[in-house]
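Hi R.,

Here's the chain you asked about this morning:
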Amino acid sequence: MYNIIGGDGKEYGPVTVEQMRQWVVEGRANAHTQVRAEGATSWQSLASVPELTALFNAPPALSAASGPGAVYDGDYELDIFGCVSRAWSALTANFWLMVGGCAVYLLIIGGISGFAQIPLIGILFSLVSLVITGPLVGGVFFFVLRLLRGQRAEVGDVFSGFRDNLGQLILGYIVPTFIAGATAIPGAIVMTIPIVIMAQNEAVAAGLLTLAIFGFLLALIPLMYFSICWAFTLPLVMDKRLDFWTAMKASRAQVKRHWWTIFGFFIVVGLLNMVGICACCIGLFVTMPLVFAALMLAYETLFTPRTAQPGAGA
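And here is the predicted structure, written out as tokens:
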């Protein structure tokens, strides 16, 4: 007998292996649905249950069958805290592997960021960061997705973005970053002018301060809107083998359905990372894999038909 995490993030059970097998056949549960055997303390993926392993011989996420036609574009319901809860279950079930994979990512990004602060040669490392961030983040997404789907994964999968779809991953990071940044330029100009005037006069004027605040919002709102709309570009490029522009459009189309819900989701995962930073940054080695897992569970919710989502209807 097992307990199972449903699509709403709640725990149900106990249920039998036969009942879970029927749910898999009906599409109400899949390989990365989290279950726990009675008497056990840790959760595991449904694919790791010996009696059900044979049901999950599907090809890896980067198979030839994955393509533009495989992208779900229907409605969805995102349970923010359910995603976080299921992400925590996945993290505890694969703790050292997930922490190890995300630690590689953190050390590489942190190292490059540190070198970017060095005068003169810092610009070179900034350019390196711009080129490698897309493939590296795409690799982490792929690594976490494989774990969530009950597939075999190893730390080396973090670098899979440098082997698969490299050019599209680079563009999938650079193009959304530059476009979103460009939308903030008018607001940044409006904000900067009154600040410069007040600095020159060495006095704060209510009218100029109001204009500066307005400019700040004018810069922040489009930057935030488009950044969230295109948040799933890299996993779509990596998982579905989309070109970067198609992935950007697919990501925006799904996020727009429930933009405020997705915005709330990113507030929650952002706060989780803030907790990791406050813990002398060491906490990031735990909160970062948790956030990546939550992001990929949200990705599955947005781009997988409801009847095929983890634990749907359980």
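One quick note: The radius of gyration is 22 Å.

Cheers,
M.
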